[in-house]
Amino acid sequence: MGVPETFTRETRHDPRMQGFRDRTQVEDVLALISRRIERLDVEPVALRNTAGRVLGEEIRAGAPVPAFDRAAMDGYALQGHETKDATVRTPALFHCIGEARPGHLCNLTVGPGETIQITTGSALPRGADTVVRVESTQREGPMVRVLEATAVGRHVGRIGEDIEAETVVLSAGRVLRPQDLGVLSAVGAGTVAVVRQSRVAVISTGDELITAGHLPSAYQIADMNSGMLEALIVRDGGVPRIVGPLPDDRDRIRAEIAEAARWADVVLISGGTSTGPEDHIPGIVAELGELVIHGVALRPAGPAGLGFIGRTAVVLLPGNPVSCLCAYDFFAGPIVRLQGGRPRNWPYRPMSLPLSRPLVSIAGRVDYARVKVEQGQVEPLATSGASILSSTTRADGFVVVPSELDGYPANALVTVWLYDLFPPSG
Ligand SMILES: Nc1nc2c(c(=O)[nH]1)N[C@H]1C(S)=C(S)[C@@H](COP(=O)(O)OP(=O)(O)OC[C@H]3O[C@@H](n4cnc5c(N)ncnc54)[C@H](O)[C@@H]3O)O[C@H]1N2
Ligand code: MOO
Protein backbone atom coordinates (compact mmCIF):
# COMPACT_ATOMS: atom_id res chain seq x y z
CA MET A 1 0.00 0.00 0.00
CA GLY A 2 1.37 3.43 -0.87
CA VAL A 3 0.94 6.73 0.89
CA PRO A 4 -2.70 7.78 0.70
CA GLU A 5 -3.67 11.22 -0.48
CA THR A 6 -2.54 14.26 1.46
CA PHE A 7 -5.25 15.91 3.52
CA THR A 8 -5.47 19.66 3.18
CA ARG A 9 -8.04 22.24 4.14
CA GLU A 10 -9.99 21.38 0.99
CA THR A 11 -9.69 17.59 0.90
CA ARG A 12 -9.26 16.59 4.49
CA HIS A 13 -10.84 13.49 5.84
CA ASP A 14 -12.15 14.03 9.35
CA PRO A 15 -11.94 10.71 11.15
CA ARG A 16 -13.61 12.07 14.30
CA MET A 17 -16.26 9.57 15.46
CA GLN A 18 -15.80 7.71 12.14
CA GLY A 19 -12.59 5.76 12.52
CA PHE A 20 -9.64 5.38 10.18
CA ARG A 21 -10.38 4.79 6.51
CA ASP A 22 -6.97 3.54 5.73
CA ARG A 23 -3.70 2.96 7.56
CA THR A 24 -0.31 3.59 6.01
CA GLN A 25 2.36 0.92 6.32
CA VAL A 26 5.32 1.81 8.55
CA GLU A 27 7.78 1.34 5.68
CA ASP A 28 5.86 3.86 3.57
CA VAL A 29 6.00 6.43 6.39
CA LEU A 30 9.75 5.85 6.68
CA ALA A 31 10.16 6.23 2.92
CA LEU A 32 8.29 9.53 3.09
CA ILE A 33 10.58 10.69 5.92
CA SER A 34 13.65 9.83 3.83
CA ARG A 35 12.22 11.76 0.86
CA ARG A 36 11.00 14.85 2.67
CA ILE A 37 13.39 15.42 5.58
CA GLU A 38 16.60 17.26 4.83
CA ARG A 39 19.70 17.83 6.89
CA LEU A 40 19.72 21.32 8.38
CA ASP A 41 22.36 23.90 7.42
CA VAL A 42 25.67 24.24 9.20
CA GLU A 43 26.47 27.00 11.66
CA PRO A 44 29.79 28.25 13.05
CA VAL A 45 30.31 27.27 16.68
CA ALA A 46 33.26 27.99 19.01
CA LEU A 47 35.36 24.84 19.23
CA ARG A 48 34.89 24.42 22.97
CA ASN A 49 31.12 24.10 22.48
CA THR A 50 31.24 21.45 19.77
CA ALA A 51 31.51 18.17 21.75
CA GLY A 52 28.59 15.94 20.78
CA ARG A 53 27.75 18.12 17.76
CA VAL A 54 27.85 16.84 14.19
CA LEU A 55 30.72 18.11 12.06
CA GLY A 56 29.41 19.82 8.92
CA GLU A 57 32.62 19.97 6.92
CA GLU A 58 35.73 17.91 6.26
CA ILE A 59 38.70 19.10 8.32
CA ARG A 60 42.21 18.91 6.84
CA ALA A 61 45.47 19.73 8.56
CA GLY A 62 46.99 22.81 6.90
CA ALA A 63 50.37 22.18 8.57
CA PRO A 64 52.10 19.17 10.11
CA VAL A 65 51.60 18.45 13.82
CA PRO A 66 54.03 18.90 15.42
CA ALA A 67 55.56 21.44 13.06
CA PHE A 68 59.10 20.63 14.28
CA ASP A 69 61.24 17.67 15.36
CA ARG A 70 61.09 17.41 19.17
CA ALA A 71 62.59 15.59 22.12
CA ALA A 72 60.48 12.68 23.39
CA MET A 73 62.53 12.30 26.60
CA ASP A 74 64.36 14.50 29.06
CA GLY A 75 68.11 14.18 28.44
CA TYR A 76 70.76 15.40 26.04
CA ALA A 77 70.51 16.22 22.34
CA LEU A 78 73.55 15.23 20.28
CA GLN A 79 74.73 13.48 17.14
CA GLY A 80 73.77 9.86 17.75
CA HIS A 81 76.60 8.25 15.78
CA GLU A 82 79.05 9.66 18.36
CA THR A 83 77.62 7.37 21.06
CA LYS A 84 78.19 4.24 18.96
CA ASP A 85 80.79 2.67 21.29
CA ALA A 86 79.55 4.13 24.58
CA THR A 87 79.15 1.78 27.56
CA VAL A 88 79.23 2.22 31.34
CA ARG A 89 82.92 1.30 31.27
CA THR A 90 83.76 3.29 28.13
CA PRO A 91 81.52 6.36 28.25
CA ALA A 92 81.47 8.88 25.39
CA LEU A 93 82.26 12.41 26.55
CA PHE A 94 80.35 15.52 25.43
CA HIS A 95 80.59 19.19 26.20
CA CYS A 96 77.24 20.69 27.20
CA ILE A 97 76.90 24.03 25.41
CA GLY A 98 73.41 25.05 26.57
CA GLU A 99 69.78 24.17 27.19
CA ALA A 100 66.69 23.66 25.05
CA ARG A 101 63.24 24.20 26.63
CA PRO A 102 59.71 23.74 25.19
CA GLY A 103 58.28 26.86 23.66
CA HIS A 104 61.66 28.57 23.35
CA LEU A 105 63.81 28.88 20.28
CA CYS A 106 67.31 27.45 20.84
CA ASN A 107 69.72 29.24 18.54
CA LEU A 108 72.69 27.00 19.26
CA THR A 109 73.98 24.40 16.82
CA VAL A 110 75.26 21.08 18.14
CA GLY A 111 78.67 20.23 16.67
CA PRO A 112 80.85 17.12 17.08
CA GLY A 113 81.58 16.38 20.73
CA GLU A 114 78.84 18.78 21.82
CA THR A 115 75.46 18.31 23.44
CA ILE A 116 72.52 20.40 24.65
CA GLN A 117 70.47 19.59 27.73
CA ILE A 118 66.91 19.15 26.50
CA THR A 119 63.48 18.49 28.03
CA THR A 120 60.57 16.56 26.55
CA GLY A 121 58.68 18.59 23.95
CA SER A 122 61.54 20.98 23.14
CA ALA A 123 62.43 21.53 19.49
CA LEU A 124 65.53 19.56 18.60
CA PRO A 125 68.42 22.04 18.16
CA ARG A 126 70.19 22.31 14.80
CA GLY A 127 72.94 19.75 14.34
CA ALA A 128 71.45 17.23 16.79
CA ASP A 129 69.63 14.11 15.57
CA THR A 130 69.26 12.06 18.75
CA VAL A 131 68.28 12.40 22.41
CA VAL A 132 70.04 10.35 25.08
CA ARG A 133 67.88 9.83 28.17
CA VAL A 134 69.17 11.48 31.31
CA GLU A 135 69.21 8.03 33.00
CA SER A 136 71.96 6.96 30.56
CA THR A 137 74.23 9.90 31.40
CA GLN A 138 76.40 11.33 34.20
CA ARG A 139 76.93 15.03 34.53
CA GLU A 140 80.12 16.62 35.82
CA GLY A 141 80.09 20.39 35.47
CA PRO A 142 79.98 21.22 31.76
CA MET A 143 80.84 17.64 30.80
CA VAL A 144 78.30 14.88 30.09
CA ARG A 145 79.25 11.20 30.03
CA VAL A 146 77.00 9.07 27.87
CA LEU A 147 76.95 5.51 29.23
CA GLU A 148 74.93 3.75 26.52
CA ALA A 149 75.06 3.61 22.73
CA THR A 150 71.97 5.40 21.44
CA ALA A 151 70.85 4.86 17.85
CA VAL A 152 70.58 7.84 15.54
CA GLY A 153 67.07 9.29 15.75
CA ARG A 154 66.27 7.70 19.12
CA HIS A 155 63.86 9.60 21.41
CA VAL A 156 63.08 12.16 18.73
CA GLY A 157 59.49 12.82 17.63
CA ARG A 158 59.52 13.75 13.97
CA ILE A 159 57.76 16.67 12.33
CA GLY A 160 54.23 15.52 11.36
CA GLU A 161 54.45 12.35 13.52
CA ASP A 162 50.97 13.09 14.93
CA ILE A 163 49.28 14.54 11.83
CA GLU A 164 50.83 14.96 8.41
CA ALA A 165 50.06 18.13 6.48
CA GLU A 166 47.02 17.85 4.19
CA THR A 167 45.63 14.79 6.00
CA VAL A 168 41.84 14.66 6.46
CA VAL A 169 41.64 14.53 10.26
CA LEU A 170 37.84 14.38 10.58
CA SER A 171 35.08 13.87 8.03
CA ALA A 172 31.74 15.62 7.74
CA GLY A 173 29.05 13.82 9.74
CA ARG A 174 31.33 12.94 12.63
CA VAL A 175 29.72 13.23 16.07
CA LEU A 176 32.52 15.06 17.81
CA ARG A 177 34.17 13.35 20.77
CA PRO A 178 36.21 15.20 23.40
CA GLN A 179 39.49 14.00 21.85
CA ASP A 180 38.34 15.32 18.46
CA LEU A 181 38.31 18.80 20.00
CA GLY A 182 41.96 18.23 20.87
CA VAL A 183 42.82 17.29 17.29
CA LEU A 184 40.83 20.26 15.96
CA SER A 185 42.78 22.50 18.32
CA ALA A 186 46.02 21.05 16.94
CA VAL A 187 45.12 21.98 13.35
CA GLY A 188 44.20 25.53 14.26
CA ALA A 189 40.39 25.34 14.27
CA GLY A 190 38.87 28.03 16.51
CA THR A 191 35.38 27.97 15.10
CA VAL A 192 33.93 24.84 13.56
CA ALA A 193 31.05 24.44 11.09
CA VAL A 194 28.62 22.02 12.73
CA VAL A 195 25.14 20.96 11.67
CA ARG A 196 22.44 23.07 13.29
CA GLN A 197 20.51 21.16 15.96
CA SER A 198 16.89 20.48 15.24
CA ARG A 199 14.59 22.78 17.24
CA VAL A 200 11.76 20.64 18.49
CA ALA A 201 8.49 21.93 19.95
CA VAL A 202 6.69 19.53 22.29
CA ILE A 203 2.97 20.18 22.67
CA SER A 204 1.03 17.82 24.95
CA THR A 205 -2.71 18.21 24.85
CA GLY A 206 -5.55 17.03 27.06
CA ASP A 207 -7.93 18.62 29.60
CA GLU A 208 -6.90 15.95 32.09
CA LEU A 209 -3.19 16.85 32.03
CA ILE A 210 -1.29 18.74 34.70
CA THR A 211 2.37 19.71 34.50
CA ALA A 212 4.64 17.04 35.98
CA GLY A 213 5.87 17.70 39.51
CA HIS A 214 2.52 17.64 41.29
CA LEU A 215 0.36 14.74 42.36
CA PRO A 216 -2.78 14.73 40.22
CA SER A 217 -6.18 14.84 41.90
CA ALA A 218 -9.36 13.12 40.69
CA TYR A 219 -9.74 13.04 36.86
CA GLN A 220 -6.25 14.40 36.38
CA ILE A 221 -3.15 12.77 34.91
CA ALA A 222 0.38 14.10 35.22
CA ASP A 223 1.88 14.92 31.83
CA MET A 224 4.18 11.92 31.35
CA ASN A 225 4.91 12.50 27.68
CA SER A 226 6.55 15.95 27.74
CA GLY A 227 9.38 14.90 30.05
CA MET A 228 9.93 11.63 28.21
CA LEU A 229 9.99 13.38 24.83
CA GLU A 230 12.32 16.09 26.09
CA ALA A 231 14.86 13.45 27.13
CA LEU A 232 14.50 11.56 23.84
CA ILE A 233 15.04 14.76 21.84
CA VAL A 234 18.17 15.66 23.82
CA ARG A 235 19.46 12.11 23.33
CA ASP A 236 18.99 12.51 19.58
CA GLY A 237 20.84 15.82 19.44
CA GLY A 238 17.79 18.09 19.16
CA VAL A 239 16.90 21.13 21.25
CA PRO A 240 13.49 20.64 22.86
CA ARG A 241 11.10 23.37 23.95
CA ILE A 242 8.11 22.27 26.00
CA VAL A 243 4.96 24.20 25.09
CA GLY A 244 2.20 22.20 26.83
CA PRO A 245 0.36 20.72 28.43
CA LEU A 246 -2.56 22.50 26.78
CA PRO A 247 -6.27 21.97 27.43
CA ASP A 248 -8.47 20.60 24.62
CA ASP A 249 -9.30 24.10 23.42
CA ARG A 250 -9.22 24.02 19.62
CA ASP A 251 -8.45 27.69 19.07
CA ARG A 252 -5.71 27.74 21.68
CA ILE A 253 -4.11 24.54 20.35
CA ARG A 254 -4.32 25.85 16.78
CA ALA A 255 -2.63 29.12 17.75
CA GLU A 256 0.16 27.31 19.63
CA ILE A 257 0.81 24.90 16.75
CA ALA A 258 0.89 27.78 14.24
CA GLU A 259 3.30 29.70 16.47
CA ALA A 260 5.56 26.68 17.06
CA ALA A 261 5.69 25.95 13.31
CA ARG A 262 7.22 29.41 12.80
CA TRP A 263 10.37 28.69 14.86
CA ALA A 264 10.61 24.91 15.14
CA ASP A 265 12.09 22.41 12.70
CA VAL A 266 9.76 19.74 14.07
CA VAL A 267 6.56 20.05 16.10
CA LEU A 268 5.63 17.00 18.18
CA ILE A 269 2.02 16.94 19.31
CA SER A 270 0.94 14.39 21.88
CA GLY A 271 -2.71 13.45 22.38
CA GLY A 272 -5.83 14.40 20.49
CA THR A 273 -4.74 12.38 17.46
CA SER A 274 -7.47 9.81 17.35
CA THR A 275 -11.13 9.69 16.50
CA GLY A 276 -12.86 11.23 19.53
CA PRO A 277 -14.82 14.50 19.33
CA GLU A 278 -11.99 16.32 21.17
CA ASP A 279 -9.30 14.97 18.80
CA HIS A 280 -8.67 18.24 16.99
CA ILE A 281 -5.05 17.82 16.01
CA PRO A 282 -5.39 16.12 12.58
CA GLY A 283 -7.87 18.77 11.44
CA ILE A 284 -5.72 21.64 12.70
CA VAL A 285 -2.60 20.33 10.94
CA ALA A 286 -4.54 19.87 7.69
CA GLU A 287 -5.82 23.44 8.00
CA LEU A 288 -2.44 25.00 8.73
CA GLY A 289 -0.47 22.95 6.22
CA GLU A 290 -0.74 19.38 5.00
CA LEU A 291 -1.50 16.20 6.87
CA VAL A 292 0.23 13.55 4.77
CA ILE A 293 -0.27 10.54 7.01
CA HIS A 294 -2.94 9.85 9.60
CA GLY A 295 -3.27 6.29 10.83
CA VAL A 296 -0.36 3.87 10.61
CA ALA A 297 -0.40 0.05 10.55
CA LEU A 298 1.53 -0.07 13.81
CA ARG A 299 0.66 -1.29 17.29
CA PRO A 300 0.68 0.65 19.50
CA ALA A 301 0.55 4.13 17.98
CA GLY A 302 -2.00 3.35 15.28
CA PRO A 303 -3.40 6.93 15.29
CA ALA A 304 0.06 8.46 14.65
CA GLY A 305 0.35 10.98 11.86
CA LEU A 306 2.82 13.07 9.92
CA GLY A 307 2.42 16.39 8.19
CA PHE A 308 4.11 19.64 7.31
CA ILE A 309 3.41 23.28 8.00
CA GLY A 310 5.66 25.17 5.62
CA ARG A 311 9.09 23.55 6.03
CA THR A 312 8.34 22.37 9.57
CA ALA A 313 7.59 18.68 10.05
CA VAL A 314 4.69 17.88 12.36
CA VAL A 315 4.40 14.48 14.04
CA LEU A 316 1.16 13.38 15.69
CA LEU A 317 1.97 11.18 18.67
CA PRO A 318 -0.93 9.30 20.24
CA GLY A 319 -1.48 10.33 23.85
CA ASN A 320 -1.14 6.90 25.44
CA PRO A 321 2.40 7.04 26.80
CA VAL A 322 3.64 3.77 25.27
CA SER A 323 2.15 4.77 21.92
CA CYS A 324 3.85 8.14 22.27
CA LEU A 325 7.21 6.44 22.86
CA CYS A 326 6.61 4.02 19.99
CA ALA A 327 5.65 6.80 17.56
CA TYR A 328 8.70 8.77 18.65
CA ASP A 329 10.94 5.74 18.11
CA PHE A 330 9.53 5.03 14.66
CA PHE A 331 8.91 8.50 13.21
CA ALA A 332 9.89 11.53 15.32
CA GLY A 333 13.33 10.25 16.38
CA PRO A 334 14.46 9.58 12.79
CA ILE A 335 13.35 13.10 11.79
CA VAL A 336 15.25 14.77 14.64
CA ARG A 337 18.36 12.71 13.92
CA LEU A 338 18.25 13.20 10.13
CA GLN A 339 17.79 16.96 10.48
CA GLY A 340 20.77 17.07 12.82
CA GLY A 341 22.99 15.11 10.41
CA ARG A 342 22.96 11.94 12.51
CA PRO A 343 22.25 8.36 11.41
CA ARG A 344 18.54 7.63 11.07
CA ASN A 345 19.01 4.25 12.78
CA TRP A 346 17.87 3.56 16.30
CA PRO A 347 20.43 4.46 18.93
CA TYR A 348 19.54 1.19 20.69
CA ARG A 349 21.87 -1.80 20.82
CA PRO A 350 20.49 -4.79 18.89
CA MET A 351 20.93 -8.33 20.27
CA SER A 352 19.88 -11.58 18.66
CA LEU A 353 18.36 -14.02 21.17
CA PRO A 354 15.79 -16.87 21.24
CA LEU A 355 12.21 -16.33 22.44
CA SER A 356 11.20 -18.17 25.63
CA ARG A 357 7.60 -18.43 24.41
CA PRO A 358 5.59 -17.46 21.32
CA LEU A 359 5.18 -13.78 20.50
CA VAL A 360 1.73 -13.27 18.98
CA SER A 361 1.00 -10.43 16.57
CA ILE A 362 -1.45 -9.68 13.77
CA ALA A 363 -0.28 -9.78 10.18
CA GLY A 364 -0.74 -6.53 8.29
CA ARG A 365 0.72 -4.26 10.93
CA VAL A 366 4.05 -3.82 12.67
CA ASP A 367 4.14 -4.72 16.37
CA TYR A 368 6.36 -3.00 18.95
CA ALA A 369 6.51 -5.63 21.70
CA ARG A 370 8.15 -4.85 25.04
CA VAL A 371 10.29 -7.73 26.32
CA LYS A 372 12.57 -8.75 29.14
CA VAL A 373 15.87 -10.54 28.63
CA GLU A 374 16.31 -13.31 31.15
CA GLN A 375 19.00 -16.00 31.16
CA GLY A 376 19.79 -15.37 27.52
CA GLN A 377 16.14 -15.66 26.46
CA VAL A 378 13.59 -13.11 25.34
CA GLU A 379 10.46 -12.99 27.48
CA PRO A 380 7.51 -11.01 26.02
CA LEU A 381 5.88 -8.88 28.74
CA ALA A 382 2.30 -9.84 29.47
CA THR A 383 1.12 -6.24 29.96
CA SER A 384 0.79 -4.84 26.52
CA GLY A 385 -1.67 -1.97 27.03
CA ALA A 386 -0.45 1.24 25.43
CA SER A 387 -1.43 3.23 28.52
CA ILE A 388 0.95 1.25 30.73
CA LEU A 389 4.20 3.21 30.51
CA SER A 390 5.67 1.21 33.39
CA SER A 391 5.76 -1.74 30.94
CA THR A 392 8.62 0.10 29.24
CA THR A 393 10.51 0.64 32.49
CA ARG A 394 10.11 -3.06 33.35
CA ALA A 395 11.21 -4.03 29.84
CA ASP A 396 14.84 -4.37 28.80
CA GLY A 397 13.95 -3.56 25.23
CA PHE A 398 11.53 -4.24 22.40
CA VAL A 399 11.11 -6.64 19.53
CA VAL A 400 9.61 -5.47 16.24
CA VAL A 401 7.35 -7.99 14.52
CA PRO A 402 7.18 -7.04 10.83
CA SER A 403 3.79 -6.62 9.21
CA GLU A 404 4.10 -9.73 7.03
CA LEU A 405 4.29 -12.03 10.11
CA ASP A 406 1.65 -12.99 12.65
CA GLY A 407 4.29 -13.44 15.33
CA TYR A 408 7.20 -15.69 16.17
CA PRO A 409 7.15 -19.23 17.61
CA ALA A 410 8.97 -20.14 20.83
CA ASN A 411 12.74 -20.47 20.34
CA ALA A 412 12.74 -18.26 17.23
CA LEU A 413 15.79 -16.00 17.11
CA VAL A 414 14.62 -12.40 17.33
CA THR A 415 16.37 -9.03 17.49
CA VAL A 416 15.89 -7.22 20.78
CA TRP A 417 16.54 -3.46 20.70
CA LEU A 418 17.88 -2.69 24.16
CA TYR A 419 16.59 0.52 25.71
CA ASP A 420 20.04 1.09 27.25
CA LEU A 421 21.72 3.74 25.20
CA PHE A 422 24.00 2.52 22.48
CA PRO A 423 27.06 4.74 22.53
CA PRO A 424 26.60 6.95 19.44
CA SER A 425 29.40 6.73 16.92
CA GLY A 426 30.36 9.09 14.18
N1 LIG B 1 -12.64 4.63 18.21
C1 LIG B 1 -11.31 4.64 18.35
N2 LIG B 1 -10.83 5.08 19.51
C2 LIG B 1 -9.49 5.09 19.68
C3 LIG B 1 -8.65 4.59 18.67
C4 LIG B 1 -9.21 4.15 17.46
O1 LIG B 1 -8.51 3.73 16.50
N3 LIG B 1 -10.57 4.21 17.34
N4 LIG B 1 -7.32 4.56 18.92
C5 LIG B 1 -6.97 4.37 20.31
C6 LIG B 1 -5.57 4.45 20.44
S1 LIG B 1 -4.74 3.17 19.79
C7 LIG B 1 -4.96 5.45 21.12
S2 LIG B 1 -3.30 5.39 21.38
C8 LIG B 1 -5.63 6.60 21.60
C9 LIG B 1 -4.87 7.83 21.12
O2 LIG B 1 -5.62 8.87 21.35
P1 LIG B 1 -5.17 10.35 21.36
O3 LIG B 1 -3.86 10.56 20.67
O4 LIG B 1 -6.28 11.11 20.85
O5 LIG B 1 -4.83 10.58 22.87
P2 LIG B 1 -5.80 11.05 24.02
O6 LIG B 1 -7.16 10.57 23.79
O7 LIG B 1 -5.58 12.47 24.23
O8 LIG B 1 -5.16 10.23 25.22
C10 LIG B 1 -5.16 8.86 25.27
C11 LIG B 1 -4.81 8.40 26.68
O9 LIG B 1 -3.49 8.82 27.02
C12 LIG B 1 -3.51 9.68 28.15
N5 LIG B 1 -2.54 10.77 27.90
C13 LIG B 1 -2.62 11.67 26.92
N6 LIG B 1 -1.58 12.51 26.98
C14 LIG B 1 -0.85 12.12 28.03
C15 LIG B 1 0.35 12.63 28.61
N7 LIG B 1 0.97 13.70 28.09
N8 LIG B 1 0.82 12.03 29.70
C16 LIG B 1 0.18 10.94 30.22
N9 LIG B 1 -0.95 10.41 29.70
C17 LIG B 1 -1.46 11.01 28.63
C18 LIG B 1 -4.89 10.20 28.24
O10 LIG B 1 -5.19 10.62 29.53
C19 LIG B 1 -5.70 9.03 27.75
O11 LIG B 1 -5.88 8.12 28.79
O12 LIG B 1 -6.94 6.63 21.13
C20 LIG B 1 -7.64 5.37 21.23
N10 LIG B 1 -8.98 5.55 20.85
O1 MOO C 1 -2.02 2.46 19.38
MO1 MOO C 1 -2.82 3.06 20.74
O2 MOO C 1 -1.54 3.91 20.28
O3 MOO C 1 -2.76 1.35 21.07
O4 MOO C 1 -2.62 2.99 22.38
Automatic annotation (TrEMBL):
Question: What GO cellular-component annotations does this UniProt entry give?
Answer: cytoplasm
Alphabetical UniProt keywords: Magnesium, Metal-binding, Molybdenum, Molybdenum cofactor biosynthesis, Transferase
User: What is one GO biological process annotated to this record?
Assistant: Mo-molybdopterin cofactor biosynthetic process
Under the GO molecular function aspect, what terms does this record hold? metal ion binding; molybdopterin molybdotransferase activity
Highest taxon above the source species: Bacteria
What is this enzyme's EC?
2.10.1.1
Q: Which residues form the MoaB/Mog domain?
A: 201-338
Record has Transferase as a keyword = yes
Pathway(s) of this molecule: Cofactor biosynthesis; molybdopterin biosynthesis
Q: Which cofactor does it need?
A: Mg(2+)
Record bears the keyword Metal-binding: yes
Recorded hits in InterPro entries, A to Z, give:
MoaB/Mog-like_dom_sf, MoaB/Mog_dom, MoeA-like, MoeA_C_domain_IV, MoeA_C_domain_IV_sf, MoeA_linker/N, MoeA_linker/N_sf
**What's the catalysed reaction?**
adenylyl-molybdopterin + molybdate = Mo-molybdopterin + AMP + H(+)
Q: Which family does it belong to?
A: Belongs to the MoeA family.
What exactly does this protein do? Catalyzes the insertion of molybdate into adenylated molybdopterin with the concomitant release of AMP.
NCBIfam families (UniProt xref): Glp_gephyrin, molyb_syn
Q: Please identify the protein, giving its name as recorded.
A: Molybdopterin molybdenumtransferase
Q: Which organism is it from?
A: Singulisphaera acidiphila (strain ATCC BAA-1392 / DSM 18658 / VKM B-2454 / MOB10)
The lineage, from the top, is: Bacteria, Pseudomonadati, Planctomycetota, Planctomycetia, Isosphaerales
